[in-house]
Specification:
Number of strands: 0
Low-confidence stretches: none
Strand content: under 5%
Order of helices and strands: HH
Oligomer: single chain
Number of helices: 2
């Protein structure tokens, strides 16, 4: 009886320890396949088509930029 309790107690403790370690280290979560873009790369605006930025022409709050 005592040997059975020691066996199951050891088995449960090892199982909970393994589960805690796997959960805290992120086991089972897939690694990202693509490197995420940096802030500068992600902020590139699409300037194709009729949208055109006017740097030296215009007025208003940001005039002459």
């Amino acid at each position: 009886m005592i040997k059975g309790l020691m066996f199951w107690g050891t088995l449960l403790t090892a199982g909970f320890g393994y589960t805690y370690h796997a959960a805290s280290s992120g086991a089972g979560i897939p690694q990202p396949k693509v490197k995420p873009p940096s802030i500068r790369e992600g902020s590139v605006k699409n300037t194709s088509g009729r949208m055109r930025t006017r740097y030296f022409v215009g007025g208003g709050l940001h005039g002459g930029k």
